[in-house]
Design brief:
Layout: E1 11-12, E2 34-35, E3 45-50, H1 53-61, E4 70-73, E5 80-83, H2 85-89, H3 98-104, E6 109-111, H4 115-130, E7 136-140, E8 143-147, H5 152-155, H6 159-174, E9 178-183, H7 186-193, E10 201-203, H8 209-214, H9 226-234, H10 240-244, H11 248-255, H12 257-266, E11 282-293, H13 296-316, E12 319-330, E13 335-346, H14 349-361, E14 369-381, H15 393-412, E15 435-437
Parallel strand pairs: 4-6, 9-10
Antiparallel strand pairs: 1-2, 3-8, 3-9, 4-5, 7-8, 11-14, 11-15, 12-13, 12-14
Cofactor: Mg(2+)
EC number: 2.7.7.7
GO molecular function: DNA-directed DNA polymerase activity
Length: 438
């Protein structure tokens, strides 16, 4: 393979033809999507990010939406989960309040999230990744790190070509696009994947890392959010290049352990491995109301629906959690979180719900809430979950009943059976289908 000896010529991302000399278009198919880099065939850490994932799935499934602005979210009081690139041109961004998104793009088509569908498609993409290497570290439903170091003998191709084949396969078989970042470490691979979206493939090599980072803002470093950025700016630090001139000792004295991260990442030093065993930290569901709610009865009904949704996801993943977390946001956007640790891990909607209600009761004082959520953390496998309760016989009976309800819902759909907590009690001012958030 002659081009392997001259990575500056590279190959075509569309037809994968090796290039014999430098040109603007592929010598075989005429595509301008050529991949060249001095370290093209030496890098093995990749970051894959699906392009506008939720919106892209909806457009794939409904071709009539292809050339229209699409926002995935819900309710006037909700937030944007994902916006397609057409909507982004109009200023719509992820996590933007829905009313602001619709002000920016009033002709957008708003679609309620279908998390079960997105999870299913995400798993298909994840399996394609695992076909390439066992070292896949998921970060979310639509992005992951891959370590392809040492796989050249298996694939008879270097990682750069393998990842180009992968992105083409996703488009061909699933009708979706991904962007790829390739580097020698996770930090720079993730940065690279943000370039040239959608359908991007960008490379940051080791030899260019210091120069590449020098003029970039400090917010490019993982962990530097708005608050910490303001702290650094007060100290006169705005660019990564400034951090490159500072010694480790002074940085740690000023910023503690974060100072060490600033020192290392500003120099492109990242020794973190791709960890395929990475597990979810929590499973949760929440919903924002169209109108603020203070009524215990209404909140309990919604809490039950949320608890059932969390329970379904835990059972589907064969996991359980020991800590129940209640989340409330008041009309003035003040956030409350309350949690309680259980004696044993659970995946039962009944235990999640009853624990959540006991936490909620203490917060009912006339405050009007705009959001409620329930979650489970301290996750483990379900082998030790929900042992028989020899003291509370009724709890055991409720667990048996829940198993029966799960079977009916599995056969006839989630709406086939409703409990008395929710039947006819969830009013229209609350979203019918709460958003799920990992």
């Amino acid at each position: 393979m002659a081009s392997l000896n001259n990575p500056q010529f590279g190959f075509c991302r569309d037809c994968l033809a090796n290039q014999a000399h430098e040109a603007k278009r592929c010598q075989s198919c005429g595509s301008p999507r050529l991949l060249r880099h001095p370290e093209l065939y030496r890098l093995g850490i990749a970051h894959v990010d699906c392009d506008a994932f939720y919106a892209s799935v909806e457009k794939r499934d409904n071709p009539e939406l292809r050339n229209k602005p699409v926002i995935i979210g819900g309710g006037k009081r909700g937030v944007v989960s994902t916006a397609c690139y057409i909507a982004r041109i109009h200023g719509v961004k992820s996590a933007m309040p829905m009313f602001k998104a619709l002000e920016a793009c009033p002709h957008a088509i708003v679609i309620k999230p279908d998390m079960e569908k997105y999870v299913r498609v995400g798993r298909e993409i994840r399996q394609m990744m695992r076909d390439l290497t066992p070292l896949v570290e998921p970060l979310s439903i639509d992005e992951a790190f891959l370590d392809l170091s040492g796989t050249e003998r298996l694939h008879h191709d270097p990682p750069a070509r393998v990842m180009a084949q992968f992105s083409n396969r996703v488009e061909r078989e699933l009708g979706l696009s991904v962007s790829v970042g390739l580097s020698y470490c996770k930090f720079l691979a993730k940065i690279a994947s943000d370039f040239e979206k959608p359908r991007g493939f960008s490379i940051i090599g080791e030899e260019e890392a210091l120069t590449f980072l020098r003029d970039k803002p400090v917010t490019m470093i993982w962990g530097v959010g708005k608050a910490f950025d303001a702290t650094l700016e007060r100290d006169g630090i705005r660019t990564i290049g400034q951090l490159q001139t500072m010694e480790l000792g002074p940085l740690m004295r000023s910023y503690g352990t974060m100072g060490q991260r600033l020192y290392r990442l500003s120099r492109g030093m990242d020794t973190r491995r791709v960890e395929p065993e990475g597990e979810s930290k929590s499973v949760s569901a929440e919903t924002t109301f169209n109108e603020d709610i203070s009524s215990m009865e209404e909140l309990v009904a919604i809490l039950r629906a949320l608890s059932e949704k969390v329970s379904r996801r835990l059972k589907a993943a064969d996991i359980a959690g020991r800590t129940i977390v209640l989340k409330l946001k008041s009309r003035d956007f003040k956030l409350k979180t309350r949690n309680r640790q259980l004696a044993d891990p659970t995946q039962l909607a009944d235990r999640i719900f009853r624990t959540g209600v006991s936490l909620l009761e203490k917060e009912i004082d006339g405050t009007r809430y705009r959001l409620i959520g329930i979650g489970v953390s301290d996750l483990t496998d379900d082998g030790r979950a929900d042992p028989l309760d020899l003291v509370d016989v009724q709890a055991t009976k409720r667990a048996v009943a829940e198993t029966a309800i799960d079977k009916l819902r599995g056969k006839f759909g989630n709406q086939a059976v409703e409990t008395g907590y929710t039947f006819g009690k969830i009013k229209s001012r609350a979203k019918e289908a709460p958003d799920e958030i990992d």
